[in-house]
Amino acid sequence: MQISPQAREILRRMGLKRILVDPQSQGWRLEVAAAVEPAEREALAGELRDAVPGLAEVRVVVSAEALLGGLRRELGAQLLAGAQLSPLGEGGFRLQVSAEQQARLAEGETADRLGRVWLALAGDAPLSVEARPDQPPPPAAQEEARRFARAHTRERSEESAEVLAGRSFRERPVPLAEAGAPRERLAVRGRVFRVERRETRRGGELLLLELADDTDALRVRFLARRGRAPQITAGDFLALRGRLELDEGGEPVLAAQDVTRLSCEGRRDEAAERRVELHLHTRMSPMDSVVGVEEAVRLAAAFGHPALAVTDHGGVQAFPEAYAAGRRHGVRVILGLEAYLVDDLAPLVRRPRSRPLGEESFVVVDV
């Protein structure tokens, strides 16, 4: 395969050490230096795919030698004296050290620092810190090492992904609360809670989304040709990558380029005895709930709950929809009410006199 000058320049910026070619997929496996950050490596890989015609896939890995050099540079050569780093399956690495070094690496501040350094060098590649076979670690250090590995290895959930636009990507998503200042490339994911479509003056289609995760919310825009915008609805769980910008009002907005719909298993109630919610407020309780009764009953059915009580504030407007939803989903709906009680026998006026109000002066106190 012919390599153009543009592609050679991209490989130089990556810090290329060697190229392995997969003849079946026409893909490249690039071994690069650790000096290039993971997000920049992903961006350069995308540029390389565009620069080399016929290149189906680019997988960028950092050599174990370069990673170990980076760890020693950031953590100190003495702490990792004699350490060995070797590749594992699925892109992971094994760091073999002495039992004493393993115990030190598992200590609180050192473990946190190792996690931050490893994330900067290798991205989401799993790291296992182990004692060399000739020096078995003490039980406490072994447990601490397992705790560190669990804390600093990406959780691989059972997700299926459907690429809706652009390319598939493996960058670690950034929590929305940490999106920060504008940047050229940002990967996020979250659940869509608002969708709006607009036509542009040039005949294109503008898709406006509002996305939320457990930390914050973010506005997203995606521009496509008419009829080519992805079909996205509120409630979809998406992974997006694009450029973070500021709008006219100075608020952050993600100009998405790559859009993937994720399908992941939700929460489950695995208790031996399922609970029954006896105090549910719906949208019919103003300023107290934003949950639709259909959504609540459907979730109760998914959790295996046999019944659900609807108890809105001083109103019964949700009863018809709740009853119908219970019939559809096989959940017994208990019709309730959070009522306001007042003692109507208590005297409200002290020492009343029979005179026209227009002739009296009085003060009303509301407590």
**Termini gap:** 84 Å
Total count of helical runs of at least 4 residues:
8
Largest sheet: 5 strands, mixed, barrel
Oligomer designation:
single chain
Give the helix level as a range of percent: 25-40%
Strands ordered across the widest β-sheet: 8-9-10-12-11
Share of residues in strands:
25-35%
Instruction: Name the helix and strand elements from N-terminus to C-terminus, one letter apiece.
Output: HEEHEHEEHHEHEEEEEEEHEHE
The structure class reads alpha/beta
Short précis:
With 367 residues, this protein is of the alpha/beta class. Helix content is 26%, strand content 30%.
Provide an overview of this structure.
It contains 8 helices and 15 strands. The chain has helices spanning about 5-15, 40-50, 65-75, 100-105, 110-120, 140-150, 295-305, 320-330, and strands at about 15-20, 25-30, 55-60, 85, 95, 125-130, 160-165, 185-200, 205-210, 215-225, 235-245, 250-265, 275-280, 305-310, 330-335. Strands 8-9-10-12-11 form a 5-stranded mixed barrel. Strands 1-2-3 form a 3-stranded mixed β-sheet. Strands 4-5-6 form a 3-stranded mixed β-sheet. A hairpin with a 4-residue loop joins β9 (about 205-210) and β10 (about 215-225). The protein is elongated.
Outline the secondary-structure elements.
Layout: H1 5-14, E1 16-22, E2 27-32, H2 38-51, E3 57-62, H3 64-75, E4 84-87, E5 93-97, H4 99-105, H5 108-122, E6 127-131, H6 139-152, E7 159-165, E8 183-199, E9 204-212, E10 217-225, E11 237-246, E12 252-264, E13 277-280, H7 293-303, E14 307-310, H8 319-329, E15 332-335
Parallel strand pairs: 2-3, 5-6, 10-12, 13-14, 14-15
Antiparallel strand pairs: 1-2, 4-5, 7-12, 8-9, 8-11, 9-10, 11-12
